[in-house]
Specification:
single chain, MetI-like fold, elongated, 0% strand, mainly alpha
């Protein structure tokens, strides 16, 4: 990928992955260590991004929060893609009653505002990372299902699929060996955009107090900084910038992958 935006996006996501995996070793200080005497201090040589209302090092907490965002985003996308692609391929291949049932279920779920349904589910189950992942996965699979179904409906009429059918290949083998590999490029692009949406949704739920309470999260830090916005803006600006950069990086990478994997896409100016 020669797009500068894609390179920037890939670099930001690589930093996120490093922070998520090696956070405990990369963090300059203990993210839970208190220093009440220097609470709300701005950036300094000792604390690059400043300190929060309890004197905790903000840079260390941003690095620790990257793990929650990465786990939530990747897990939601993995569950949603696995379920959505499976259901969508089956609906598109078999059609008829199977297709009608699946698509009516998708229509019903899409009739609810996604974030409101996630708030309701997370509120009922209680604040935790596991419940946030479950709440976001309830609706996350629908987009993958619609995409996979459309691709399956188109591919099932192609000559190579008809040839496999004529040789008596079972449906499972055709779906696995012939249709799924041709659907994967579109799924990869959808997953990249889905990762951005999942990270943003996790931050939104954490901002509302529905995320994990025992570990730092970017949304939780953003919520804590709202009360100090006028005289300690770094408490909100730093986690807000982390969320924005990560979401933009996912979108930049998704755009580049779409241009690369879809030969019919019109070239875009970078």
């Amino acid at each position: 990928m020669k797009s500068p935006a894609a390179i920037v996006g890939l670099a930001v996501l690589a930093l996120l992955a490093m922070a998520a995996v090696f956070g405990p070793w990369l963090a300059p200080r203990d993210p839970a260590a208190l220093d009440l005497e220097n609470a709300l201090s701005g950036p300094s040589r000792a604390h690059w991004l400043g300190q929060d209302e309890l004197g905790r090092d903000l840079a260390s907490r941003i690095i620790a929060g990257a793990r929650a965002s990465a786990i939530a985003g990747l897990t939601v996308v993995a569950i949603s893609a696995a379920l959505g692609v499976t259901v969508g391929l089956l609906a598109g291949w078999f059609g008829g009653a199977v297709d009608q049932i699946v698509m009516r279920l998708v229509d019903v779920l899409l009739a609810f505002p996604g974030i409101l349904l996630a708030i309701a589910i997370a509120g009922i189950l209680g604040p935790s990372l596991r419940n946030v992942i479950f709440a976001l996965s309830i609706l996350g699979w629908t987009g993958f299902a619609r995409l996979a179904r459309g691709q399956a409906l188109s591919l099932r009429e192609r000559d190579f699929v008809l040839a496999a059918e004529s040789y008596g290949a079972p449906a499972g083998r055709i779906l696995r060996r012939h249709i799924l590999p041709n659907v994967l490029p579109a799924i990869v692009v959808q997953a990249t955009f889905g990762l951005a949406g999942a990270i943003l949704a996790e931050a939104s739920l954490s901002f509302l107090g529905l995320g994990p309470q025992n570990i730092p999260t970017w949304g939780g830090m953003l919520a804590s900084g709202v009360d100090y916005l006028l005289f300690a803006p770094h408490l909100s600006l730093v986690p807000g910038a982390a969320i924005a950069l990560t979401v933009l990086a996912c979108n930049f990478l998704g755009d580049a992958l779409r241009d690369k994997l879809d030969p019919r896409a019109a070239p875009t100016l970078r």
